[in-house]
Task: structure prediction
Amino acid sequence: MNPRERWLAVLNGRRPDRTPCDYWGTAEITDRLKKDLGCADERALWERLGIDKCIYLSPCHPRSPEKTWHLQSHFAVWHVETQAIGYGENLGEYQEDAFHPLAEAGTVADIEAFDWPDAADFDIAALRREAQKWAGYPILGASSEPFYLYCRLRGMERAMEDMVQRPEMAEAVLERIFRFDYELIRRVLTEAGDLVDLIYVAEDLGTQQSLLLSPATIRQRLLPRMKRIVDLVHSCGKFVFHHDDGAIRKILPDLVATGIDLLNPIQWRCRGMEREALARDFGPQVVFHGGIDNQQTLPFGRAEEVRAEVRDNLRLLAGGRGYIVAPCHNLQANTPTENVLALYEAVREFG
Result:
């Protein structure tokens, strides 16, 4: 089986020749791995490690200089300004918000007057060309992450206050984001659906201990629109990849009820996210993706501990609808190469 066949087998409830695996990593560690393993490019790295890499793509916009598949991080399109913030001792950097274009908006009219991007301006033909380069790999073709984007447009503190104290503002912003997301995903599925397997329908609702917002607020403000996008994706015969960080156990039944197909990242050391309980309660309904701890095991554990975690996850998570082995978020630059090798060698051995 090739990577795409493995993913589709799991997503369709069939047994692949082995458990598939994916890769998430920062640019810094990806570049280091290519150097350490003598790989000329990322495709060679996936082949060297035996990774069933999901290829994360998006349509592009003529105003966007950002090179990312995550549409909400095409910051120029949204008039969000960022600055590079380094971490560690020159380990790498992340782009952090520096200007929120809707921070001073005080009325619904201010929201409506914002220069919202038009889904018609995105280039689906470019997405098709890029997807055609990756025959044999699963393709993810667009993304929706409304509250993540809301926090960049308004600033996180104002966004959270809006959700409770200024519901008219929250509804105005979320409705405009939804209209954009729905129309662009509809275009992707209509014009490139023959090449796309998954759509990313996500949020970042959890901390290490609990939710950022109350379950009631999430149910009222976020999930109805999410359900409409999930239904759109399913109506075109495609699958929904849902990412939601942290301790989200209280809202998981509601998320699963929207119809998501794949649940990522399975941060099982967060409160309430124990693997046994997740497998028991949601294993028959969703494919688990992730679960190899990138905060403790991968950067600070020994190679044999990484192997043991892969083995444990396969035992605990693969018995329901299925499991795709991957780091539970981006591998960080302080992760030893030997631990990355141990991760993917263990998939081949135990999966």
